[in-house]
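Quick sanity check, DUF892 family protein:
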Amino acid sequence: MLPPEINVNRDDIEKFFIGHLNKIYAAKTLLRTELPELMDNVHFSDLREAINDTVEDVKKQISRMDEIYQIMAAEISDAGCNGMKGLVEDSFHDIKIHGENPELRDMSILFYLHNIESIEMASFQILEMAAVKLRNDRIKRLIKKNYEQARADRTLFLLISAKYIATV
């Protein structure tokens, strides 16, 4: 027996795509604000440099998403984006709990940034698959570039975590 054929019309794919792009966009704009403030509290120089690089990556990712919104003639909305924004907000709140202990604070930063990048990477990957149904090569390339950047950032935080924990 063959699995049932799945048919989703283009309008529904576009709604799905924009709705989930909004969630990532909300998280990225919050990171753009929060990450620079975090750098002043980072103890480990490699982590500070990685956060600085990530801030630049986030700006590029937001710019690409802005272009996608323009291509699709869609408006950015943060309605229903509390989950992703909440994760980022909770992360930065938890990092501040360890404000007096630089080693634990750095470990918390690494833990949360790795997790945030993992979720964003997975989200971009799903949107990349959905973009195939949109039949727009530019959108596919922009999402793919964001996915690759999120993956590289996640890998960087993982490598720094291994180096940092080995030295603690």
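Posting the structure with no commentary besides this: Residues 102-134 form the longest helix (33 residues).
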